[in-house]
């Protein structure tokens, strides 16, 4: 389960994808399949969420990992490299960025 707290020792990764409305659903399908079939089964994976904006021009992905190295190992795997080539074809750009939680507000 996603848990957002500044005292958390988890690695948070936020990835934004930019695409056209015409490729949004295809990209969402690819990302969903990647999580269901591969990413969620990788060591250190905790949880993730996919968010689509109203215009269907951006997808934001929030994921948590036990350690930075777990995320990096998944990203560098042959399976994910293959999937990322397909994902890259469906969007203008995407960028995963690792973050530390600085503050939370309930």
From TrEMBL:
PROSITE patterns: ABM. Pfam families: ABM (PF03992). The keyword Oxidoreductase applies. InterPro entries: ABM_dom, Dimeric_a/b-barrel. Coiled coil: none annotated. GO terms for molecular function: monooxygenase activity. Residues 11-98 form the ABM domain. This is Antibiotic biosynthesis monooxygenase. It comes from Roseovarius bejariae.
């Amino acid at each position: 389960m996603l848990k957002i707290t500044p005292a958390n020792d988890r690695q948070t990764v936020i990835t934004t994808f930019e695409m056209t409305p015409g490729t949004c659903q295809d990209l969402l399908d690819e990302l969903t399949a990647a999580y269901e079939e591969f990413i969620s089964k990788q060591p250190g994976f905790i949880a993730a969420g996919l968010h689509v904006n109203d215009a269907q021009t951006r997808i934001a992905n929030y994921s948590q990992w036990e350690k930075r190295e777990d995320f990096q190992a998944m990203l560098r795997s042959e399976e994910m490299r293959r999937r990322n080539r397909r994902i890259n074809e469906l969007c203008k750009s995407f960028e995963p960025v690792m973050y530390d939680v600085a503050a939370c507000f309930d």
